[in-house]
Amino acid sequence: MNSENFIADHVKNLPRSGIRDFFAIVSEMPQAISLGIGEPDFVTPWKIREASIFALEQGKTSYTDNRGLLSLRKEISKYCTSFFGPDYDPVSEILVTVGVSEAIDIALRSILNPGDKVLYHEPCYVSYAPSVTLAFGEPIPVATTPGQEFSLDPEAFEKAWQPGCKVLMLNFPTNPTGGTADREKLERLAKFAKEKDLIVISDEIYAELTYEGDHVSISSLPGMKERTLLLHGFSKGFAMTGFRVGFGCGPDWLIEAMMKIHQYCMMCAPILSQEAAIEALRNGTEDVLQMRDQYHKRRDFVVRRFNEIGFNCHLPRGSFYAFPSISSTGLNEIDFCHRLLREQEVAVVPGTAFGEHGVNHVRASFSTSYDKLVDATDRIEKFVYCLDSENKEPAAV
Amino acid sequence: MSDLLTVLQDTADPRPEKLAKILGSTPQEVENELEELRRNKTLLGWMPILNPIQGQSEQVRAVIEVKISPEREGGFDRMALRISKFEEVESCYLMSGGYDLLVFVTGKNLKSVASFISERLATIQGVLSTATHFLLRPYKDHGHLLAEETENQEKPSISP
């Protein structure tokens, strides 16, 4: 039996995630300080966990409506109006999903015909290009650049456009760069999307973790609600990664198409997670603000330390990642991460795990305690110092 | 609240060198600020938080509700301060509601706490009554859960 024959070509050709390879190494070093974690270090606020326990005690163990509990969709609708801007009908314009990842997958599968092209910015979350490929689309990466602090560059999108483009995928604030999108640039991008008749899939999972100014959603701009799928969830802002609950808000025809796939392959998001999400939206906002304040302080510390160490590190305006350039060390990002882990037992993630435009950068999460951040940055400083000494040593004759 | 006080509450390690790193200042500047905070009685001292159920301490703690009669010129303050000065008294608060002072008392055993209450506290002129509650088992102290949740050992150390 040739097992290769039984794996579909488009899956066989999918590259392994760079994160997965690195994870295998780090998992053998339990003492290492990891700045490679892409999730909050806070445990879900107790009131949210307790709501889920209470639901279990009440015997809420059934399926829900495929679209999600109506009571949750009503809360989502209220939250979206107050936080993002647009009004969404809880009955027809909101779908509760198993995290934003599922929403991205079923959105792309709903929209794309084989060969349709998807514009997205890079460096970006690891699943974007594979999700497009798995939906038989063609990913077209558009670079965001260190010179612009990895923020939205509408001009780059305009230049990258080509016939066959159907979707524009956005993720601001961005994992891994912390880049954001200001209103003016979003307005220009919205104009471009309308001119080229593009659907926008906007993953705004880090929206609550915006440190400078207010988060602006492209869905709130005039004429954009009808062509934007707003994706959001509870994993990051509410520290609920393990609950696996997210949602999509958009035009009813798109939500209906996504629902068709969702009902056949997922049925519904777990009811206990949905109950927890209701509590999060009703009473969790204060907890979100407290966590954001903590991330904000840690961000300022980490960025300052990285720049003191000699990296070029911009100030991430959102998310909980710093994305410094390590080119001053003379190492590429892969060697840097491997040697740092081996020599100082600190894990950061190579920037190219998030696409080739992450070259010469690493992602360092500041979603960890001050004490660990101080220790980790001290070790990184020592590592860089040793590298410098190495480079200064005269060559052996 | 100053940046230093905020950071002090977020870190388990109050060494000036470490605080200076977090704040982007020098250890000497941190020392100076700490000294000023001590001088103006904002910072009263350091206290390790021990887990009482780990058997490190056999001390007995009690909470006492005390009713007192206010005095013409001092109100409750003079009585409250007088009670607070006993070394057995850990904390003392003026309360609204059915009694006036809530007093936390510690002693090396039940007998010593009982004799403090009956012989010293209850006999002070102006103390009208006391109601004593001995603490049996703590669950949370100074924001720390004593039966700590188990850390998720399977949480990945690298995730996307």
Main features:
heterodimer, A: 397 residues, alpha/beta, Aspartate Aminotransferase, domain 1, Aspartate Aminotransferase, domain 2, 2 domains, seven-stranded mixed β-sheet, 13 helices, 12 strands, B: alpha+beta, Alpha-Beta Plaits, two-stranded antiparallel ribbon, 5 helices, 6 strands, 21% strand
Short account of what is shown:
With 397 residues, chain A is of the alpha/beta class. Helix content of chain A is 42%, strand content 12%.
Instruction: Supply the CATH superfamily name of the largest domain in chain B.
Output: Lrp/AsnC effector binding domain/regulation of amino acid metabolism (RAM) domain
Q: In CATH's first tier, which class of the largest domain in chain A applies?
A: Alpha Beta
β-strand amount of chain B: 15-25%
What name does the CATH topology of the largest domain in chain B carry? Alpha-Beta Plaits
Structural class of chain A: alpha/beta
Radius of gyration of chain A: 22 Å
Q: Please state the second-level CATH architecture of the largest domain in chain B.
A: 2-Layer Sandwich
Estimate the mean pLDDT confidence of chain B: 89
Helix content of chain B: 25-40%
- End-to-end C-alpha gap of chain A: 56 Å
Spatially, the strands of the biggest sheet of chain B line up as 2-3-1-4
What would you note in describing this structure?
The complex is a heterodimer of chains A (397) and B (160). In chain A, 42% of the residues lie in helices and 12% in strands. With 397 residues, chain A is an alpha/beta fold. Chain A has a seven-stranded mixed β-sheet, with helices on both faces. In chain A, strands 9-12-11 form a three-stranded antiparallel β-sheet. In chain A, helix 5 packs across helix 9. The model of chain A has no long low-confidence stretch (mean pLDDT 95). Chain B has two domains: 37 residues, no CATH class; 80 residues, Alpha-Beta Plaits (2-Layer Sandwich), CATH 3.30.70. Chain B is built from five helices and six strands. In chain B, the strands form two sheets. Chain B has a four-stranded antiparallel β-sheet with strand order 2-3-1-4. Chain B has a two-stranded antiparallel sheet with strand order 5-6. In chain B, strand 2 and strand 3 form a beta hairpin. In chain B, helix 2 crosses helix 3. Chains A and B meet through helix 2, helix 11 and helix 13 of A and helix 2 of B.
